[in-house]
Amino acid sequence: MKHLSIALIPGDGIGPEVVAEGVKILRTIEELDPELSFSFTEFPWGCEYYLKQGKMMDADGIDQLQNFDAIYLGAVGYPGVPDHISLRDLLIKIRRSFDQYVNLRPVSLLDPSFTPLKDKSDKDIDMLVIRENSEGEYAGAGEWLYKGRPEEVVLQTGIFSRKGTERIIRYAYEEAHRSNRTLTSISKGNALNYSMVFWDEVFEEVGKEYPDVETYSYLVDAASLYFVSDPERFEVVVTSNLFGDIVTDIGAGITGGLGLAAGANINPEMKYPSMFEPVHGSAPDIAGKGLANPIAAIWSVSQMMDFFGEEKWGKAVLDTIKGLTVEKENLTPDLGGKATTNEIGDRISEKLQKLI
Q1: Per-residue model confidence as pLDDT tens digits over 216-239
Q2: In what residue span(s) does the Isopropylmalate dehydrogenase-like domain sit (predicted)?
Q3: Which listed CATH number (3.30.70.20, 3.40.718.10, 3.40.50.2300, 3.90.550.10) goes with 116-255?
Q4: What's the chain look like in SS3?
Q5: Which of 100, 139, 213, 341 sits a CA distance of 20 to 30 A from 175?
Q6: Please, which pLDDT band fits residue 354 given cuts at 50, 70 and 90?
Q7: pLDDT at 356 over 80
Q8: pLDDT of 79-117, one tens digit each?
Q9: Within 10 Å of residue 149's Cβ, how many Cβ atoms?
């Protein structure tokens, strides 16, 4: 039997609600598969914890998480806690401490009625964005000089190492090669004359090892336009930390909203635990009302299963989600339905049992 120990960080706002539904699906898988089992340990970290304790997580929090197989995160963010604290002192701290240098964001249209784009089908919008997740523009390097004075200057430095840039680009080439898809690099070499010129050169260098992979390269502004006007040109996409953050939100916009946006923060070598999460934020204005869409959180369970070599379950969960989208009455209000968060989880669990 394969056993996976999972650290739960439900976090803030709607985080606990959607994580509960993801755990429900994992429990369902456990019931259906005698070869799989899960154990869960919950941690109370997040913004509400910060308001009480003055820190986003325990001082030894990384040590506490070290021996888990995976981390399942709900959402982070709450009024009264600056975003740069909530993001850097929990989410980014975990990503960097565990070298989760690959961020996987599927951008796939589950149902044509979900997209605001005219005449686009699920065949037109089906891509995987691979975002560098450990350095780049989010490295946190810089300086704040002469604060509060007329000569005040701030420096925000992007870090693009040979190791970090090459490994994410190579990961993307491997994925494109494995899945027989095209690979598109998104950068901004015309304006960022050091970091992005370097990125483009590494993309070309690594590409020589993969002559079978058809490649394209776009500036981020043009790519943002094409995400909306011509999304079918993208299959596998690789880009930097900041640009990946931006274009995947565009991806969410063209596929039905952030309630459908799943994400995986991967350490491919499995030296450290990887982290799986919906990326919709904490939405404190609807917390506790049963309005939150748990599909992104459940989709990230599918990503978790794929990562651990349980592709059968990864596909089963995603197929079940796709099957649910035609049941308009069984969708949350953001998708035009009237179902509650808990009802969505129950229905996916029910359909999953019938699928297997």
Answers
A1: 999 999 999 999 999 999 999 999
A2: 5-348
A3: 3.40.718.10
A4: CEEEEEEEEEECCCHHHHHHHHHHHHHHHHHHCCCEEEEEEECCCCHHHHHHHCCCCCCCHHHHHCCCCEEEEEECCCCCCCHHHHHHHHHHHHHHHCCCCEEEEEEECCCHHHCCCCCCCCCCCEEEEEEECCCEEEEEEEEEECCCCCCCEEEEEEECCHHHHHHHHHHHHHHHHHHCCCEEEEECCCCCCCHHHHHHHHHHHHHCCCCCCCEEEEEHHHHHHHHHHCHHHCCEEEECHHHHHHHHHHHHHHHCCHHHCEEEEECCCCCCCEEEEECCCCCHHHCCCCCCCCHHHHHHHHHHHHHCCCHHHHHHHHHHHHHHCCCHHHCCHHHCCCCCHHHHHHHHHHHHHHHC
A5: 139
A6: confident
A7: no
A8: 999 988 999 999 999 999 999 999 999 999 999 999 999
A9: 8
Structure tokens at 209: 């090892």
